[in-house]
User: What shape does this take?
Amino acid sequence: MHTIDFTARSVVTGRVRHVFDVLTDWPRQTGWVPATVVSRPEGGPVGVVGERFVATTRIGPFTLVDSMEVVSRVVPDTSAGSERPGRVGIVKTGDHLGGTVEIVVAPAGSGQVLVEWTEHVVVRSRRLARLAALGGPVPGLFGKAAFEVVLRRARDDLRGPS
Assistant: This one.
């Protein structure tokens, strides 16, 4: 096994609750993550702890299935006097990738919202783990850069309706 850790951050214009709702609408991420389709199983819970979803990435003949489950969810509260950030905790449950994801959405002042996306990826597949280990710090740096790009691609959706 090998681990890859990174945190991507972005400040976006929008309302905290809207940004949280959009980021945690997992299938919507299909439009932002290159070569990836995110789906939920039919009939499963949505928007609550226990929600499951799968991100399937296809690049040429290579396919990676990343199964996940929401294990914690705190909706942001920006009502009068409160600035509690939104948080969602996710566990990767697949055969090839394990680990955790935490997404935090917090007010950043003046109509701005800070998004922090942290991943601790456990590469379970022996072949992928060897490849990741050969890369040294590169897989973590790539993960951070890739999710910063994803958050930039999501900006129009995160901004919300005018």
In short: Strands lie at 2-13, 36-39, 52-59, 62-74, 86-93, 97-109, 112-123. The radius of gyration is 16 Å. The longest strand covers residues 62-74. The mean pLDDT is 93.
